[in-house]
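#lab-general

N.A. 3:47 PM
ok so I finally got the sequence cleaned up, no stray characters, all 187 residues accounted for. can someone with queue access submit it? mine expired

B.Y. 3:52 PM
send it over

N.A. 3:53 PM
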Amino acid sequence: INFLLWLLTPVQKLMQKLGRFEPKMDRGAVDFAISLLKVGDILVTHEDQRLTSLFIKGEYDHAAILSPAGIIEAVGDDYVNGKNIGGVRKTDLEEFLFLMDKVAIIRPLTTTTEQNYIAGTNAISYVGKGYDYEFKIDKSKIYCSELVYLSYKEFGIFNDLKHSKILPQHFRDLCDDVKFKLIFEFK
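B.Y. 4:20 PM
back already:
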């Protein structure tokens, strides 16, 4: 499977380039979501016309975390003026939300405010890492759900996840557990 994922990397990159640009969330929904967010919150999202979404199981296809510096996310290679702006990067919160068709904000309840802040800060430490097209759980290259997982790893809140590949939908499904709370959902 890992060899197949590696082999399909160019196809994945092409599919990420195709999609749409019209925002789904309106100003009111974005402002309300922003008013609820706290550092360490997990955002799982979906863009309807993103072709890579067809290959990601679940209603949500992307995960990010709110850091003290803004949204930290891991995205595939994306070249602007010859420079790769993909991988783990900081993104403006408002711009991020306006791009999404669906958003769920998830807050861990078994961690303290200080631990959530540390998780958000941990996410910043991965900025600049390349994107993991093979979806391996390690720190050499990172995909979106892995970023969230690694940011909170020291607190053990995802120990119940029994998946070899962590997907954004897994975080949303955790809201059925008393350890996580769904703060906001826009569909």
